[in-house]
Every structure is written in structure tokens, then in C-alpha cells.
Amino acid sequence: MNFMHPSSTPHYDVLSRAFHWITAIVVTIAFILGPGGFGRLMRQGMDPATHIDIVWHETLGMLVLVLTVLRLLWVALRPAAPQIPMAPRIHMMAKLMHLALWTLLLLLPITALLALGGKAHPLTLLGGVRIDQIPLMTNSALAKLLDWGDVHGLLGDAIMWLAGLHAAAAIYHHMVLKDGVLSTMLPPKKPR
Q1: What is the 3-state secondary structure (H, E, C) of the chain?
Q2: Is the dihedral of CA 14, 16, 21, 23 positive or negative?
Q3: Which of 90, 109, 129, 178 sits between 20 and 30 A of 144, alpha carbons compared?
Q4: What are the tens digits of pLDDT across the range 104-139?
Q5: Which domains does the chain have, with CATH numbers?
Q6: Taking Cα atoms as reference points, which of 60, 52, 58 lies closest to residue 22?
Q7: Can you give the pTM of this predicted structure?
Q8: What is the pLDDT of residues 17-59, one digit of tens each?
Q9: Which chain regions cross the lipid bilayer (predicted)?
Q10: What are phi and psi of 130, to 5 degrees?
Q11: Largest alpha-carbon pair distance within the chain?
């Protein structure tokens, strides 16, 4: 049974799928490498550039920011997204989930920069890149408003929980509802 609207494509375009899966992988690896006790180590005088997990975490975090901005630009330009009929309640839940995920994808790197800037810590990236003064962040009033490191940690946990629910919902659509939602984000099957 075909659930697709006649004028709709059954799959997202290649670039949208690539952005989706690369972002999912990068966020997961950044979360796993998230340095526990980073603030304490920095207060003890530890140089973040000497800890490869921190360098990778910060590099992947900035990659998430770049990918998210590029994805948002692509969403405005890309071909029409697949339209799958579903109950209004499920459609609304999906919209809210996507809004929450997009919001977190933007807020996580921003809160990381605020956390670094509020404590005047450098941003350390792969390739020996080190930014000691983060523009608009270092010692700004906003950066000193909260303990952004704690906020960043909470948002990191939140995105992993929401991503897990997002994946579970896609599997539910695939296994139970059989409506093609999961397949929209997978490559088309090659004809035999």
C-alpha cells in the first residue's frame, strides 16, 4: 500500500539524508567524548589542548554547529520533503520532536561557547587550533549570567534522550505502522 501523496517523493534528497546521519553520528561521538569534570580540571590549571578527548569534543561540537547551520540553509532550498499521511496527533508530536532537536542542535554548541567564554577558557580544536578569546563570549555579561557548563551538560543529556525517542518512533513507524517514515531517511532500494 502506498501512503505517499502522489506529488511527493518517497525519500529525502541525498544531501538531507547525509546531513541527518552525519549529524547523528557526530552528536553521539561528541556526547561519548564529553569530558566529565572539565570545569574542575580547568580551575586546577589543566590546559585543554593536552587532553585529546576535550579537543575532539570541542571540534565535534563546532562541527555540529556548522552542520546545523548548513542544514537549516538547505531546508530552505532543498526539494520538497516526503509527505506521509498520519494522524494529526502523531504529526504534531513529530513536529514538536523535530523542533526540540533542532533547538538543541543550535543551543548545545552555543552553551559550550558561553561556558568557555564565561570562564575565559580557550576553545581547542584539532590541528592545533586554539582560540583564547571567543568573540562575543569571553567575559561577556551573558557568559557570566549562568553556569553554562551545567546547562550544556543538561542539554547534552536531553538531546541524547530525545534522539533515542526519535529513533524509537522511527522504528515504531517502520515495524508497527508500516507507513514509510523510516525509509524516507534511507537510500532508495535498487531495483532487482
Answers
A1: CCCCCCCCCCCCCHHHHHHHHHHHHHHHHHHHHCCCCHHHHHHCCCCHHHCHHHHHHHHHHHHHHHHHHHHHHHHHHCCCCCCCCCCHHHHHHHHHHHHHHHHHHHHHHHHHHHHHHHCCCCEEEHHHEEECCCCCCCCCHHHHHCCHHHHHHHHHHHHHHHHHHHHHHHHHHHHHHCCCCHHHHCCCCCCC
A2: positive
A3: 129
A4: 999 999 999 999 988 888 999 999 999 998 888 877
A5: 14-179 (1.20.950)
A6: 60
A7: 0.88
A8: 999 999 999 999 999 988 777 767 777 777 888 889 899 999 9
A9: 21-42, 54-75, 96-116, 158-177
A10: -140, 125
A11: 63
Cα–Cα distance, 49 to 47 (Å, whole number) = 5
Dist CA 26 CA 66 (whole Å):
12
User: In terms of Cα–Cα distance, which of 191, 192, 179 is closest to 10?
Assistant: 179
Task: Answer for the pair 41, 121: CB distance below 8 angstroms, yes or no.
Answer: no
**Which residues sit opposite 129 in a β-bridge?**
125
Q: In angstroms, rounded to a whole number, what is the distance separating the alpha carbons of residues 148 and 169?
A: 31
